[in-house]
Amino acid sequence: MTDRPHLAVIGAGPAGLAASLAAAARGIRVTLIDSAAQAGGQFYRQPASGLGARRPKALHHQWRTWERLRDGLAAADTIHQLTDHHVWCVERQSEGFAVHALLGPEQEKPATVHADAVLLATGGYEKVLPFPGWTLPGVVTAGGAQAMLKGGLVVPGRTAVVAGTGPLLLPVATGLAAAGVEVAALVESADPKAFARKATALAAQPGKVAEGAQYAAQLLRHRIRFIPRHTVVEAHGDARLDAVTVAALDKGGRVRTGTARRIPCDTLAVGHGMLPHTDLAESLGCRIDGLKVYVDDEQRTDVPGVWAAGETTGIGGSALSLAEGHIAGRSIAARLTGTEPDARAWAAVDRSRTRTREFIAALDTVYAPPAHWADQVTDDTVVCRCEEVTGGEIRAAVAELGAGDVRTVKLLTRAGMGWCQGRMCEPAVAGLAGCEQKAARRLLARPVPLGVLAQAGEPSPEPSRKSEAD
Known about the structure:
Blueprint: E1 6-10, H1 14-24, E2 29-33, H2 63-75, E3 79-82, E4 85-92, E5 97-103, E6 109-115, E7 117-120, E8 124-126, E9 139-141, H3 142-152, E10 159-164, H4 169-178, E11 182-188, H5 193-197, H6 199-203, H7 206-221, E12 226-228, E13 230-237, E14 241-248, E15 261-264, E16 267-271, E17 274-276, H8 279-284, E18 288-289, E19 292-293, E20 306-308, H9 317-336, H10 347-366, E21 382-384, E22 389-390, H11 391-399, H12 406-413, H13 426-433, H14 450-455
Parallel strand pairs: 1-2, 1-7, 2-3, 7-20, 9-16, 10-11, 10-16, 11-12
Antiparallel strand pairs: 4-5, 5-6, 8-17, 13-14, 14-15, 18-19, 21-22
Helix pairs in contact: 1-2, 1-9, 3-4, 4-7, 9-10, 11-12
C-alpha cells in the first residue's frame, strides 16, 4: 500500500470527505487531516460521544448523505484519518509536499505528513460586522450558535434574536426554536422582493427552493416573527445582553429614521455571510481571485500538485462542496497515476456543480450586508477586539493620517495585529476605511510555538495511527 501515490487532504468537511472517498476508490493512498476530534466539518458537526446524544440527526438535514460519507470513510482501508491536527503550513519540497500540523487542543507538539499531492478543503469562516454593543456577553455569531447546539448540545440563551443576512439564519433560527429557545424574531436585511427578480435562476434548483419552503413552514410552526429589510443597530445591556434595537432599511441600505424598535432578549445570533479560508493557499503561492482560491475545471490551483475544493474556492454550501470534492478526487487519482482525466466520467457531477454555482451567484446578489452598515458604527465602538481599536481610531487613520488600505490602517492603529491576525476584523476595517477587502497573505495559518518553528526544517516521523482520536 505504501507504494501507492499519496494524497494529503486538509479538511474533513463535505469537500474533503468526498475527495478522499473518490481518490481512495481509484487506488490513491489518502491521509485526511482535520483539526476537529471527528470528521464532518462545520456542516456535519457531531456532538462529542461522551454527551450521549440519542438523536443527533435531529440537529441536521441531509443526514443520509452524512451517513454515506461516514460509512464510506470507515470502510476505506486506504484512508488514514488524523484528527486533532491543526495545519499551520504546507511546504513545497523537491519531491511532493510537507504538511506541518500541531497536535491536540494545546497545539504545542508538531507533526508532519509527506505527500505527493495536496487538496485544500479548508472551508470558510463567518464575516463579522460590528455595531454598538456587539461585544456584550450574549452576542454570538450565527454559526457560533449553531456550533454550540450541534457540537455541545447547548443553547446560548433562553430568548434569542437571529439577525443579519444569508441563508444560514434560517437553520439557526429554526434549530434554536426546536431546542426550546424562544426566538423572538428573525431579522433579515435582504428584501424578499429581490428573490422574485432572481426567479429564473432560483427555479433551476427546485430542491433548494423546497428546502427554503420547509424552513418557512418551521418559522410559522414555531411562531417566529420574520422582520425583513431590517438590521440591528445596537445591542443593549450592562453585564450582558438584555435587548437589541432593530430598524428598517431604505432601498439604498440606509437606516430609516423613526423606525427603530427594541426587542428584549438575552441572546443575539448575528451573521452576515461567510468568507473562504485561503491562508494555506496563499502561503503556497496559489492564485487568489478576489477572496477565493482560483481553480480550473478539475479543481486544480495554478500550483502543480495542489487542488482546492469547497468553501475555500467560494462560499457555496454543502452540495457544491460535495460536487467539487468528488471532481477533485477523481482528477487527483488520474493525475497521480499518470492518466489524463476523462471529464465525461464526472459529467453529471459537473452539471450539478455548474447549476449550484449559478444558484449561489443569484443568492449572493440578494443576501448582501446593507450598503451603509458602517454608518451605524460609532467612534467608540470596538472594531478590532484583539487590540481594542475603535471605529474612531480607524476613521482618524484614514481622514487625518492618509491611510488608504487595510495594511496601512493596521500599521497605524494595530487593527488586525492580534491573535486572529485580522481574520475577524478585516471586513469591518476595510468597510470603515472605504477600501476594498483583499485576501491578506499570511505566512502561517495559525499561531505556532517558536520551538516548533525552530524544528520545522528537521526530519520528523510521519504521524502514526496512535495519534488519531478514538
